[in-house]
């Protein structure tokens, strides 16, 4: 039995506007490309990281010039340059979606140059060099790299001031008007709003227009604005907007737009330190949002772990799955697999699989009732499946397919996603990452009828501090707690 046809996904539907809404006229060189007839997408403009690569390569060569000619090994120097570039690439120092300051990058750049020289000195004939020579070489390399990167970033920053990037602002109408007005008061920030995207009911109920920009109430208006104004940046105001307008944001990302989330009302506390993909825009904190299907930092390693472990566990658990299916078929009749719609990463719905341990009265009950399982009404075998979480083993197939991950926030039904998103401000942010079979909240006992607020806190803490090692630790702790009194 499935809930797919009973509940509207939280992404919602775009309300139709009363009439056509005009957008700002293209201005000078900021004018974008119009959509060719019959085509629904375009190739986004990509800023090449090649200048930064050249700067880092040239800096490595300048650092190598300090080494005496007798020790000038071309192969070693080439490996040094490639190694430093590889380390920088892994640290996202070639991310062209942001323009950092030289002081922001200085610790990361210098640290990786030092590591590169240390590795080369330890594994090559350069280890015979005096320590003073190596220190001078590292210093010259760092100075050249930082100076060159500052020049590249400065040129990009000046270009953005001369030609601000057209942007759409998406979110609640009051918040987006306030953000747009602030951006227009700061023309040097490099972003020029050309339209606001909000629901038509919000527009009708709000007459205070601080920015003077047109409000676009349909996806069609937003897509037209992209081509008429050359929009390549979308500013998403508020964490809840990611889920409420997930379908629209996916469409804008498919048109080649880069999505940023802005905090219009930042909290009084937050993570300490500077992380790549974050920063500020006209005083608003911003974070880079990855559209569905985009590659995120660590996503490759996490996906490799998911495929390898889920595939291995499916093979090893195959006999157990077969026995469970046969026993359920004999005891409870046909329909041993329970399929239910759940909300995954970026608010995208998928069908989650479980062994059926209880038969809801209707699909509506399965979709909207928090717990439909009654221990007294279940057979002993079904109670055993729930206590040991064996009914969850079929979700390994969801992991192998890519609907879920082994570790991540637990997926929930659309009805409850919409309900919890309104009651708990941090709930929509859980959908930044692929949902999982287990997670940080689950190993801390937050399963079944437990606090949703506590789950949000643990899930968002897991995402904010994600690492592959953290996934391994959670899997180990989950395996140690495999036999539990209740299932999820």
Explain this structure.
The protein has 18 helices and 11 strands. β8 and β9 (349-355) form a beta hairpin. Helix content is 46%, strand content 11%. It is an alpha/beta fold. The protein has 3 domains: 50-160, no CATH class; 164-289, NAD(P)-binding Rossmann-like Domain (Rossmann fold, 3-Layer(aba) Sandwich); 299-480, no CATH class.
Q: How many extended strands?
A: 11
β-sheet strand percentage: 5-15%
Q: Secondary-structure element order, as H and E?
A: HHHHEHEHEHEHHEEEHHEEHHHEHEHHH
Provide the structure class. alpha/beta
Give the helix level as a range of percent: 40-55%
Task: Throw out a few tags for this protein.
488 residues; seven-stranded mixed beta sheet; 18 helices; two-stranded antiparallel sheet; disordered N terminus; alpha/beta; flat; 46% helix; Rossmann fold; 3 domains
Question: Brief overview, please?
Answer:
With 488 residues, the chain is of the alpha/beta class. Helices cover 46% and strands 11% of the residues. It has a seven-stranded mixed β-sheet with strand order 3-2-1-4-5-7-6. A two-stranded antiparallel sheet has the order 8-9.
Describe the secondary-structure layout.
Layout lengths: L49 H16 L8 H17 L11 H22 L7 H32 L2 E6 L2 H12 L6 E7 L2 H5 L10 E2 L2 H11 L3 E5 L2 H5 L1 H9 L3 E6 L14 E4 L2 E6 L9 H18 L1 H15 L4 E7 L5 E7 L7 H6 L11 H9 L6 H7 L3 E3 L6 H10 L12 E3 L1 H4 L8 H13 L3 H13 L8
């Amino acid at each position: 039995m499935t809930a797919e046809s009973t509940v509207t996904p939280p992404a919602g539907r775009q309300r139709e506007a009363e009439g056509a809404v005009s957008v700002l006229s293209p201005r000078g060189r900021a004018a974008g490309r119009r959509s060719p007839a019959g085509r629904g997408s375009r190739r986004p403009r990509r800023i090449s990281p090649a200048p930064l690569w050249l700067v880092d390569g040239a800096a490595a060569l300048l650092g190598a010039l300090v080494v005496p000619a007798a020790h000038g090994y071309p192969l070693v120097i080439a490996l040094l340059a490639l190694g430093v570039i590889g380390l920088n690439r892994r640290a996202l120092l070639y991310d062209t979606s942001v323009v950092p300051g030289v002081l922001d990058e200085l610790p990361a750049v210098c640290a990786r140059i030092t590591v590169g020289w240390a590795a080369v000195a330890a594994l090559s004939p350069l280890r015979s060099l005096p320590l003073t020579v190596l220190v001078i070489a590292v210093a010259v390399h760092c100075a050249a790299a930082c100076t060159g990167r500052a020049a590249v970033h400065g040129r990009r920053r000046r270009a953005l001031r001369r030609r601000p990037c057209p942007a759409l602002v998406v979110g609640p109408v009051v918040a987006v008007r306030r953000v747009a007005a602030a951006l227009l008061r700061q023309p040097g920030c490099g972003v020029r709003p050309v339209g606001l995207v909000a629901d038509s009911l919000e527009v009708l109920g709000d007459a205070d227009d601080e920015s003077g920009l047109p409000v676009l109430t349909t996806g069609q208006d937003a897509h037209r604005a992209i081509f008429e104004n050359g929009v390549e940046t979308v500013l998403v105001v508020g964490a809840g907007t990611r889920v409420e307008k997930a379908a629209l944001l996916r469409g804008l990302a498919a048109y080649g737009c880069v999505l940023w989330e802005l905090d219009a009302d930042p909290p009084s506390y937050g993570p300490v330190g500077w992380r790549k993909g974050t920063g500020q825009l006209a005083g608003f904190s911003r974070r880079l949002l990855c559209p569905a299907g985009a590659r995120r930092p660590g996503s490759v390693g996490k996906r490799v772990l998911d495929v390898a472990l889920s595939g291995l566990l499916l093979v090893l658990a195959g006999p157990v799955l077969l026995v469970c299916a046969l026993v359920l078929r004999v005891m409870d009749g046909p329909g041993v697999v329970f399929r239910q719609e759940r909300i995954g990463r970026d608010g995208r719905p998928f069908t989650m699989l479980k062994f059926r341990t209880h038969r809801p009265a209707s699909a509506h009950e399965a979709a909207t009732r928090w717990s439909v399982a009654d221990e007294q009404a279940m057979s002993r075998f079904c109670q055993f499946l729930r206590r040991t979480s064996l009914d969850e083993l079929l979700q390994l197939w969801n992991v192998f397919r890519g609907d879920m991950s082994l570790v991540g926030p637990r997926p929930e039904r659309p009805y409850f996603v919409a309900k919890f998103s309104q009651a708990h401000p941090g709930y929509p942010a859980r959908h930044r990452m692929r949902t999982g079979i287990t997670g940080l909240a689950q190993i801390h006992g937050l399963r079944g009828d437990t606090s949703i607020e506590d789950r949000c806190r643990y899930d968002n803490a897991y995402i904010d501090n994600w690492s592959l090692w953290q996934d391994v630790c959670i899997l180990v702790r989950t395996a140690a707690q495999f036999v539990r009194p209740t299932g999820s």
